[in-house]
Amino acid sequence: MIGRNDPCLCGSGKKYKKCCQSKNAVSIETVQQDELERALQTFYDEYPERKDIPEYLKLANEWKQSLGTYMPEEMIEAIAMDEFFFNHRSDIWLGYLDKQKKKLLRPSVLRVVETWQNPRSFIGEVIEVDDTYITVQMIFNDEIIKLRRESEKPVPVGVHLFCFVLPDGTDDKNHYLAVSSLLFFPTDHTNAIQEFAKRFSSEEALSVSTFLKENALDFWKCLGDDGYEGGEFTNFEAGVLLSAIEFLEKHNRDPKELLDVVEDFLVEQQPNARKEMAIAAGAIRFGQDNSFFEPISMPLKEIAEWFEVSPSSMNKYSKDLEAYYTAKVTN
After folding, report:
1. What are the residues facing 125 on neighbouring strands?
2. Environment class of 104 (CB within 10 Å of its CB; exposed 0-12, middle 13-18, buried 19+)
3. Is cis: bond before 48, omega within 30 of 0?
4. To pair with 309 at 20 to 30 A between CA atoms, which of 10, 15, 196, 325?
C-alpha cells in the first residue's frame, strides 16, 4: 500500500499526500489516459495551420474526386486529413509532439508521448472483444493488437476496421489507441477487404507500412467499388432500421430512442431472420410495449400487415428484443 510520503504513482513527481490522495484514490491510468486524450484532441483543434491548409485541401480534393461517388464528403475529408498528417506531412505531427514534450509535467505521460513518433495505419479483423479492448488481427500478416475501445457500443466479432494507431500508454505489449477516425466495415465487404489483402503478397519487397502508404487511396476505392457508402451496418441491418424509421415517421413518432436499442440488438445478437421486415415489425411492437414512443392507435395485426409479415413472426422478434433489453438493463 502506498504511504502518504511516498512518490505518487501517477508519475507527477509529487508526494502522494500532495497529489492523488486528495482525489479519492483516482485511478493512475485514468489520469494518464485523460492527459493523452487531451493531447490528441488539441492536435486536431489546432492543425492544420493556415500555411498548411492549401496543401491539405489539394490532397482532400484529389481524394474527393476519386471517392466522391461512394462516400459522404465529410468522411472523405476526415480520412484524407489523417492521411495528410501521418503519411504526407509527418513533420507537422512530429513538430506538435516536440511542443507537447515541453508542456507535459508528468514523467509517465511524457514517456508515452516519446513512443508516438510513428503513427501507422492498421486494417484488421475483430477476433475478440472485452470491456476495455478490441482484439484485432492485421489482414496482411499474423500481427494481433489490443485496441482500446472508444465507447460502450457493441462491436461484433468478424467485422473489419481501419484506423491509425499509437501505443496507449500501458506497459502491455501491442496495446494501442486509435489516433482519430476508427471506422468499422460491415461484413458485406469482407470479400473486398480480403481481395485487397491478397495484393500485398504480390509485393513482398514492401513492408506493410510502405504498402499501405502507397496504396491508401486504392483501399478506399476497393471498398467503394464493392458498394461501401460509409455506414457501419450491413445491408440487411440497414433494411431493418430504415423500415422501422419509415413506419415511425409516417405516424409522426420519434424513432431515436427505439433505434438505439435495435441497433445494439442487431450488432450483438446477429439475428438470423429470413426477412428484415420481421425484425422491423417486432421492433415496433417491442417499442410500443415499452413506451419508447407515444402509442399508435393501430391493432397489432395491422402493424404486421403493414410490414407484410405474419403476427407470429412479429411477436417472435418482439420477444427476442424484450429478452435482450431486459438482460442489458439488469446487467
Report:
1. 137, 160
2. middle
3. yes
4. 325
Query: Interior CA angle at 56 toward 52 and 59, to 5°?
Result: 150
Cell 403476427: give the residue: 311
Is the sign of the CA dihedral 136, 138, 144, 147 positive or negative? negative
Q: Buried b / exposed e across 165-198, counting CB within 10 Å, b at 16+?
A: bbbbbbeeeebbbbbbebbbbbbbbeebbeebbe
Instruction: In whole angstroms, give the CA distance from residue 319 to residue 159.
Output: 27
| Nearest CA-CA partner of 115 in 56, 177, 41, 22 | 177
C-alpha cell at 59: 490532397
Please compute Rg for the chain using Cα positions: 24
pLDDT at position 270 over 50: yes
Specify the pairing of strand 175-178 against strand 144-148. parallel
pTM of the model: 0.80
What is the 8-class DSSP label of residue 125? Answer: E
pLDDT in tens, 4-27: 567 776 666 676 656 766 554 455
Report how far apart the first and last C-alpha atoms of the chain are (Å, whole number). Answer: 32
